[in-house]
Amino acid sequence: LPEPYNNLAVLYAGQGQYEKAKVALEMAIRTHPSYATAHENLGDIYAKMASQAYDRALQLDKSNADTRTKLALIQDLFDKGARAAKAPTILVADATPVAPLQASAPVAQAPATAVNKPVVVAAAPVVQAAPVAAVKAETVAAPAKVEPAVVPVKAEPAPVSVPAKTASLQDASAGIERATRDWAKAWSGKNVKQYLSFYASDFKTPGGLSRSAWEALRKDRLTKPKSIQVGLSNLKVTLIDAQQAQVSFTQNYRASQFKSLDRKTLVWAMRDGRWQIVEETTGK
Q1: DSSP label at 189?
Q2: Model confidence over 147-178: pLDDT tens digits?
Q3: What is the DSSP string of 88-115?
Q4: 193 partner at 20 to 30 Å CA-CA among 36, 137, 256, 276?
């Protein structure tokens, strides 16, 4: 379903996290390429990011009239959209209000045309196509100082399964972190079989080694020291999509005759119903 990603983007946009909002909307479009709302919201996010870039350019070169005009066009675009949408008619399913949106954006009350009572949603005024055309036809005077435009992002009615979808993303992140710590635990315990089971069959072995040669090398590294301790800190999980994630952390390795402190990144992917490592990189 694309709606959970769209509504997650609304939350990110309300917090000013436009890059994360863009990624969520791209996921919605990947899930459902003909989902028009996600395309529209993605355009608004790009407009906001463009506004920030133009504003930064003006800070560096205040005499750039072309940049000032472009920024003013975007400002005027959303100003007109806001005036045209004083009472936005966004309706959501009465049984499933998206509670977190109430604190992250202005409150709008929808007309009771599809449900028995208005439902509060965290959606800024919706920019319609007509105001955009009108802005392009107008000549905008360059103000002395142009503030970044506020991007209205339209929230779609959320299906009943939204909480479960959001929970599944949180569960995936927690599951990957747990798998990473179990991987380190197997390494510390010198459990070769369990340690190797964390690596997928399509794992990218370093240096072009064959899988069998790499496994033999890892087995020697695990069994040779009398003791091994692998500590993880500053662990961060980044979900690439529903089937892949990246985990970065600081690895504190201590063995009988050797110790090191490295920054490591593991790429996990869903393989046969479980998370497994497909790529491993290490850097100081």
Answers
A1: T
A2: 555 556 566 655 544 455 555 777 888 999 99
A3: ------TT---GGGGGTS--EE--TTSS
A4: 256
Pairing of strands 244-255, 259-271: antiparallel
- Please give the Cα distance from 177 to 200 (Å, whole number): 17
Residues 69 and 136 in one domain: yes
End-to-end alpha-carbon separation of the chain, Å?
41
Task: Please indicate, yes or no, whether residues 99 and 54 belong to a single structural domain of this protein.
Answer: yes
Query: Residue 52 — φ and ψ, nearest 5°?
Result: -65, -40
Of 159, 190, 205, which residue constitutes the final position of a domain? Answer: 159
In CATH, what number is assigned to the domain containing residue 239?
Answer: 3.10.450.50
196-252 pLDDT per residue, tens: 999 999 999 988 899 999 999 999 989 989 999 999 999 999 998 878 999 999 999
Instruction: Identify the burial level of 122 via C-beta atoms within 10 angstroms of its C-beta, where 0-12 means exposed, 13-18 middle and 19 or more buried.
Output: buried
